[in-house]
Write a structure and sequence with these properties.
The structure holds 2 protein chains of 2 kinds.
Chain A: H1 7-16, H2 21-46, H3 51-59, H4 61-94, H5 100-108, H6 117-126, H7 131-136, H8 146-171, H9 175-182, H10 187-215, H11 219-224, H12 231-240, H13 245-270, H14 292-320, E1 322-324, E2 328-331, H15 334-340, H16 343-373, H17 379-391, H18 394-404, H19 416-439, H20 444-452, H21 457-485, H22 502-511, H23 515-542
Helix pairs in contact in A: 2-16, 2-17, 2-18, 3-13, 4-8, 4-10, 4-14, 5-14, 6-14, 8-10, 8-19, 9-10, 10-13, 10-19, 12-13, 13-17, 14-23, 15-23, 16-17, 16-19, 16-21, 17-19, 19-21, 20-21, 21-23, 22-23
Chain B: H1 2-39, H2 45-50, E1 67-72, H3 76-90, E2 93-98, H4 101-110, E3 119-124, H5 126-134, E4 137-138, E5 159-172, H6 173-180, E6 203-206, H7 212-225, H8 227-240, E7 241-245, H9 252-256, E8 262-266, H10 267-274, E9 280-283, E10 290-298, H11 304-314, H12 317-327, E11 330-331, H13 355-372
Parallel strand pairs in B: 1-2, 1-3, 6-7
Antiparallel strand pairs in B: 3-10, 4-10, 5-8, 5-9, 5-10, 5-11
Helix pairs in contact in B: 3-12, 4-5, 7-8
């Protein structure tokens, strides 16, 4: 494997590329794309502050505290996100229980919600004066601080891990488990030695996506973090509260370091084993039944979290139709009418989201294929490139784009193109993880067979890999679209008067204290995201593909 | 098979090209659609031509044509009101985007090599200083600023002060009447009233290390009481603080919805929320501090001449009145009345706020605030 190969072997591998010019061109094109649209903007941000600005980082206790807090939150929230995601995926794939559609619906909601506004919903329900905590149960709990933030981040980001884990779990054949049971293995043995190892690439990929989201989250800590200082909020507030771009850039660069560590950990944990299950033969055996007690216990926990999520979003939707958010609950349509005045922005959201997602999922699939299935000498570099955008807080990717593409020869600021490109590259890690997790399940033997029969790299890619990757490809496409429509951080510095999108309006409305209108806008964005999802699912069903996110 | 692969590459290329190529077409259709909705309320330019030029007493404004691109850190309603009236008075179309003060500065700075906007409006002039130093602004000394208090005019003419924002104490009336009035507490009138232990854990504030507005409030106490007593005040106030929010405006929504009872915020920011129907009381305490709201012309923008006209216009009596009535901000002109329901500027007892000193001591104050207050909290 590439991980073990020496530099010499890498060079040998690169030389071999001469025989596959198309592969070579593809690799060069991808490297060029990523250098231009990810690395170059990042470098722009990195070199923006002076060395004196960087020196300040070490003189300021506050930022060490922020770094420590960020790492702690990333650790605990990632663990809980991954555990919850695993539970949802397991219930969805392996249990014969009702309400699965509801669970899937609940697990998608947090992905499609723009930041800020949902935190208001949490506070309304569970805050000091919360409808549920105080009015219903009469308990006084304080959600501001570590615990509250932990809960909210878990709910907000577990769906990202879920989509990866679920994709992998769907692809795991039940045959191996039956084989193990037939040989007398206990349930625990089967879980631990058969099922779990097969899930591991998904779990690791999912955890990584969740971790990067938690690490770069600034909306939730702003509203619920209490006195806790975290790196992304400190960085954002250096711009928003102190107008200090230099310090903000320094803190952003400091965020890249833990992101790099995540990358190394992921490689160490997942990279060393082979996880092959798809060997060309499909299976249709029902999952092996598990004891009723455990089944309904898992069902109960899943239901609890589902209700929790539905309540939060139910409040949001209800708030969209009330006169003054959280205060005057009488119903009105004025908020929704306001949104229709901004139809142009909603159209922009949809168009940009579709183009960016198509680009991101295509590019990611090719990238994942090359990294997983071809030894080209630069696999590690490509892998790193693919997850790099995820390590950059969206806002700084945005600033980097403004700095990098503001003059000839690539003058893109103010255009729709810059919005689309930024969203596209921002979505690559999500799509890439999904594609990688899917690919790691496909044995080389299938492809080797194709190659032995005379197909070249691209023939085997097209006719063997793509059909097997259809499900992860489409799920990453839809996921990417949902993220784009509801993304704020990336586009916040990129929009112009004519390229404004829906989430920008949500932010402006929240800043003006017009939460009713903001809730209405959010509700409509979520509705659009789900409509697109349902349409895609409908179209695919006709072709016999079952798209489940 | 190879063909199909080429097709795949071509598709990928097409996607990226479409992303670039689609731009101009997109732009065209958007701006036409966008301007339709945006100007819906403003009458056509024929009417505009009728309104005569202002007399010199209220400030003169030239006519113009074409457009002006504005980054506005004002409330969006406020921006639209200015835009519509400006079109009526001068015939110039404003295209704007609304964004936070800091975000606006970041954008202007990032675009400096090739500016996309002509004008930056809103937010404290404190934030304009670094951009002026960086060379982002065009020097312009408006003929309409001669009669203003000198503190509103940048000596180097990079920025112009055109409104004043005041710090206020905000209170949720419903919860106050329910929980604090029975205890014999009356509405706070001074900063010292906030030290009442009855406010413990129902009072929130913003962290000055992350919020420029909260720093002005902090410095206000140091100027008001002197160094030693000022810090004592801040530490005592800290005992009542439930927690410190990151942004200066973040405290408003929790107080408006009754999650907490009182806080300190800009009067004009709180006003926006009050207008939504919340029981939010805005109190201007004695010895309060203020911010000077800025405007500046971006150097090298596409419509610099129109930007100058806009600057002149902002300082006219009519524009100042419009700003006061739509935003709760104080005017800079002495012949324009204070916002309705707020004391006039003469009645407001402003603290002797030394901007230069405030800027000089910032680093030390924030460090001390962090070490002696924030990090001592559990």
């Amino acid at each position: 494997m590439a991980q073990n190969s020496s530099a010499k072997e890498s060079i040998k591998e690169m030389k071999r590329l001469k025989n596959e010019p198309l592969l070579l061109i593809a690799i060069l094109a991808i490297i060029a794309f990523i250098c231009l649209f990810v690395v170059y903007p990042v470098i722009k941000v990195v070199v923006f502050p002076s060395l004196t600005d960087y020196a300040k980082l070490f003189n300021n206790q506050r930022w060490f505290t922020a770094l420590k807090n960020s790492l702690l939150m990333t650790l605990i929230s990632t663990i809980s996100c991954t555990a919850l995601a695993f539970l949802f995926a397991y219930v969805n794939n392996r249990l014969d229980v009702p309400c699965k559609g509801l669970f899937r619906f609940a697990s998608l909601l947090p992905i499609v919600s723009p930041p800020f506004i949902v935190a208001l919903s949490y506070i309304l329900l569970f805050g000091v004066q919360g409808i549920i905590t105080k009015q219903l149960f009469g308990i006084h709990i304080d959600i501001y601080g570590r615990t509250g933030l932990w809960i909210v981040q878990t709910i907000t980001f577990f769906p990202y891990a879920y989509s990866v884990i679920n994709g992998v779990m769907q692809a795991i054949s039940t045959n191996l488990e039956y084989a193990a049971y037939n040989m007398g293995a206990t349930r625990w043995q089967v879980f631990r030695n058969v099922f779990w190892p097969l899930c591991r690439p998904g779990v690791a990929g999912g955890a990584l996506v969740a971790a990067i989201n938690v690490l770069t989250d600034f909306g939730n800590p702003m509203m619920i973090g209490g006195d806790m200082a975290l790196l992304p909020t400190e960085a954002y507030m250096q711009i928003s509260g102190w107008y200090d771009m230099n310090t903000a850039s320094v803190l952003a660069v400091a965020l890249l370091i833990p992101a790099l560590v995540l990358f190394v950990v992921k490689n160490f944990w997942v990279g060393k084993r082979s996880y092959v299950t798809v060997t060309g033969k499909e299976t249709s055996l029902e999952p092996y039944p598990i004891p009723k007690f455990i089944k309904w216990l898992l069902f109960g926990i899943t239901m609890f979290f589902t209700i929790f999520i539905l309540l939060v979003y139910g409040t949001l939707v209800y708030g969209a139709f009330t006169k003054a958010w959280g205060y005057d609950w009488s119903l009105t349509l004025k908020n929704v009418q306001y949104v229709f005045l901004k139809g142009n922005q909603i159209r922009n959201s949809i168009v940009y989201g579709l183009i960016a997602s198509l680009g991101a999922s295509l590019l990611s699939m090719i990238l994942a294929y090359i990294v997983q299935k071809k030894q080209v000498g630069v696999n590690k570099l490509l892998d790193f490139f693919a997850i790099l955008p995820g390590a950059i807080p969206g806002m700084f990717l945005g600033i980097g784009y403004v700095m990098a593409f503001n003059s000839q020869p690539l003058e893109l600021t103010g255009t729709a193109a810059i919005m689309i490109l930024a969203l596209m590259f921002w979505n690559i890690p999500t799509c890439y993880n999904s594609a990688t997790a899917g690919l790691q399940q496909i044995g080389n033997s299938v492809e080797d067979a194709a190659l032995n029969l005379g197909a070249n790299s691209f023939r085997s890619f097209k006719d063997v890999i793509i059909p097997l990757l259809k499900a992860p490809f489409l799920s990453s496409f839809v996921l990417s679209f949902l993220r784009s429509v509801t993304c704020l951080s990336v586009v916040i510095f990129l929009y112009s008067p004519s390229t404004t999108v829906g989430t920008i309006s949500v932010m402006v409305l929240v800043q003006s204290g017009q939460w009713g209108e903001a809730a209405a806008f959010t509700t409509i964005l979520i509705a659009i995201a789900f409509t697109v999802l349902r349409i895609t699912q409908g179209i695919l069903k006709k072709q016999g593909i079952d798209l489940k996110l | 098979m190879k063909k199909k692969f080429y097709a795949a590459i071509a598709l990928l290329a097409a996607v990226s090209l479409a992303a670039c190529g689609g731009t101009s077409a997109d732009n065209g259709s958007h701006s036409s659609a966008g301007s339709k909705t945006d100007i819906a309320e403003s009458p056509d330019s024929g009417v505009a031509a009728d309104s005569s030029a202002k007399s010199s007493a209220t400030g003169t404004v030239k006519k113009g044509s074409g457009k002006l691109i504005v980054y506005s850190a004002l409330n969006e309603d406020n921006t639209i009101a200015l835009k519509d009236q400006f079109k009526k008075d001068t015939g110039i179309d404003i295209e704007y985007i609304s964004l936070g003060g800091g975000d606006a500065v970041a954008r202007v700075q990032a675009e400096m090599s090739n500016p996309k906007a002509d004008f930056l409006v809103g937010g404290s002039v404190d934030l304009y200083g670094s951009l002026a130093d960086a060379g982002a602004f065009e020097q312009y000394d408006s003929p309409n600023n001669d009669d203003l208090d000198p503190k509103f005019n940048d000596p180097n003419h990079y920025w112009q002060g055109w409104y004043m924002g005041l710090l206020s104490i905000i209170v949720n009336e419903d919860r106050f009447k329910e929980e604090l009035s029975p205890k014999g507490v009356s509405y706070p009138e001074t900063w010292d009233d906030l030290l009442d232990p009855n406010y413990k854990d129902v009072f929130v504030w913003s962290n000055p290390t992350t919020a420029g507005g909260a720093y002005i409030a902090t410095a206000c106490q140091l100027f008001r009481l002197g160094d030693e007593k000022g810090w004592e005040y801040l530490k005592n106030l800290d005992k009542n603080v439930h927690h410190y929010y990151k942004g200066a405006g973040d405290v408003i929504s929790p107080v408006a919805t009754g999650e907490f009872i009182a806080s300190i915020a800009w009067a004009h920011d709180s006003y926006k929320t009050q207008q939504q129907g919340y029981p939010l009381k805005i109190i201007i305490p004695k010895q309060t501090a203020y911010e000077i709201g800025g405007a500046a012309i971006i150097k090298g923008g596409p419509n610099t001449e129109n930007a100058k006209i806009f600057m002149d216009w902002l300082l006219t009596k009519d524009a100042q009145e419009l700003s006061v009535s739509t935003s709760y901000r104080y005017p800079v002109r002495s012949d324009v009345a204070a916002p309705e329901g707020l004391p006039s500027l003469d009645e407001v007892n402003l603290v002797n706020y030394d901007r230069t000193k405030a800027a000089d001591m910032k680093e030390d104050v924030l460090k001390k605030f962090d070490e002696e207050i924030i990090s001592k909290r559990t």
